[in-house]
Fold this protein.
Amino acid sequence: MSTVRIQFECEEERVLEMDALIAECGFSTRKELFNNALTLFKWAVRKSRDDCDVAAVDVTNDKLFELQMPFLMHVRDAARKRKGESAAVAPFAPAAVGLEPDQGAPVGS
């Protein structure tokens, strides 16, 4: 497998955020952060393609925090269209699994 160098620019604040995550997660390099982030991103795309909601569950307090990002909706809609289903996404019903929906947590930050 050949190696390709990728270089991009970002705001200094984002670099500080990345470095803080590297320290918190015990990573050694930005490459390690990137590879782990890509793994999580691919998982979220795969789950959305499979018509699953991507969420965190707080089992202690019976709360669900659904990740709502436009690209996940796009992936789900495209998969539904390929299957010939309606692209409209029904809202998740956390009560159906005994959980309370998140009440206004920031999304996409």
Q: What stands out?
A: The first strand starts at residue 55 and ends at 58. The mean pLDDT is 85.
